[in-house]
Design a protein that fits this description.
Length: 449
């Protein structure tokens, strides 16, 4: 299949050039995903999906056309090439477009991307993982009135990129994720929580840990209360830190957002924007990372990029277009949602370098403050102003958790948040978008009610 995708891509590029393209790029993908969801001990749904397609970008005199098809049939691909060329001829020249990336000699083979156990997973193995997670959750919730949802999703894919400047790259990838989501009732209160894992390795998934953790969290969030607000320290657990930094900062260092004037750090390159305790790298070559890949969605080599070092903003994240526009080095962060879209920019493995201590340590050191396990909010990306509801969190006094929080908000500007990070832990965990430990923000405005 590797040879097949590259052969299809090379054939499409040559056809585009023959029909008048100055440059051409073909992105191909084949994938299979399998998902099972269960409620208590009953399978609620199971689905398997397969997808294959090709996206074709052509350039004529700096005019860009793009078309895609959801098959790999020769006739459909030929039609897509012609459609892309027609759109290019009808487009307006983009003066900021310089060139597609060229093939380079510094590619490194990313490690830990493919696991045969995941690729070969059966429905029986998947269902067993779910039942194990549910059983572990039940053991913790014994004596409570509860309902438990759980699910497992696995995927196996092959992506390929071919262009007219010598790039011809492909590699297989697999991943698996599992979650448990218990809802419990006690007295006159009802609450819920969840836990999950995601990995590229089957043997790193621990359904018992997921189930037990979800159950304990749900119990811990019973009977939430409001608190007296004011300025106080905020401890972000790894999931909360990931939510704030991925939505609130990773998007801000997207070079396209900066060039469009939509980022609150647009004028801060090379400046100290964060605490010296905060260091962030984007590592596309991290072995086994969820965002790991040997090359980006334009075929440019992946790399490790220092984003914040000693509090200083060292780099933005670029694809070939934004790098050429700014006349800087490409960081290999081109991304696509699928073959049906043009390249954008995204992180790979956006990592906060670990420090000392963990969530429990930071809680024990608080006189008064709050813990944010998670939030679903993001800042205004132009101003950096953040008003984040604490979806799951606790009130802490004298170094001990007093009770879970109800209707409590954190208000702070992201530039202040970055500068006020006083502690960075060593309890890092991988989420879908980041690898981060717990962090402590020395003060933020907390309101509750």
């Amino acid at each position: 299949m590797v040879d097949s995708l590259l052969t299809i891509g090379e054939k499409a590029v040559k056809l585009a050039e023959k029909l008048g393209a100055d440059q051409a790029e073909v992105y191909l993908a084949q994938s299979r995903s399998f998902e099972i969801e269960a409620e208590n001990n009953a399978i609620k749904g199971a689905s398997e999906s397969k997808d294959a397609g090709i996206g074709i970008r052509t350039i004529i005199d700096k005019k860009i056309g793009f078309a895609y098809v959801t098959t790999l049939d020769d006739s459909d691909i030929e039609e897509a090439v012609n459609h892309s060329l027609s759109l290019a001829r009808a487009s307006i020249p983009d003066p900021d477009f310089h060139t597609l990336p060229e093939s380079l000699s510094n590619y490194q083979n990313a490690k830990g991307l493919f696991d045969k156990e995941i690729h070969d997973m059966t429905a029986e193995v998947t269902a067993e993982l779910i039942i194990r997670a549910i059983d572990a959750t039940k053991q913790v919730l014994d004596g409570y009135n509860y309902a438990i949802e759980a699910g497992v999703q696995s995927s196996s894919s092959m992506n390929a990129i071919v262009n007219s400047l010598g790039i011809a790259k492909t590699e297989p990838r697999t991943s698996i994720s599992i979650y448990s989501y218990p809802i419990i009732k006690a007295d006159d209160d009802q609450t819920a929580s969840y836990e999950y894992q995601i990995s590229r390795k089957f043997n790193e998934i621990d359904p018992e840990w997921v189930g037990r953790s979800a159950g304990r969290l749900a119990i811990g969030f019973l009977h939430p209360k409001i608190i007296e607000g004011g300025e106080m320290p905020v401890v972000f657990a790894p999931l909360g830190a990931s939510a704030v930094l991925s939505r609130g900062f990773a998007d801000a260092v997207n070079a396209e957002e900066v060039q469009m004037g939509r980022s609150y750090i647009a004028d801060a390159f090379g400046e100290k924007i964060a605490s010296e305790k905060l260091e962030i790298v984007d590592d596309g070559l991290l072995p086994g990372g969820i965002g790991t890949r040997s090359f980006d969605a334009e075929g440019f080599p992946s790399q490790r990029t220092s984003v914040i070092e000693n509090g200083i903003l060292k780099s933005l994240l670029h694809n070939s277009y934004t790098a050429n526009k700014d006349r800087v080095d490409n960081t290999g962060n081109a991304s696509r949602p699928s073959y049906s879209g043009l390249p954008g920019i995204s992180t790979t493995n956006f990592m906060v370098s670990p420090g000392k201590g963990d969530l429990n340590t930071f809680i024990s050191e608080l006189d008064t403050g709050v813990v944010c396990r998670n939030t679903g909010d993001r800042p205004n990306m132009t101003t950096g102003d953040l008003s984040a509801m604490i979806i799951e969190g606790y009130y802490v006094k004298n170094g001990e958790v007093q009770h879970p929080l109800k209707n409590t908000l954190i208000g702070i500007n992201m530039r202040d948040l970055l500068k006020r990070i006083s502690h960075v832990g060593n309890d890092s965990r991988a989420t879908f978008s980041m690898i981060t430990p717990s962090i402590v923000v020395e003060r933020a405005n907390v309101t509750s009610g």
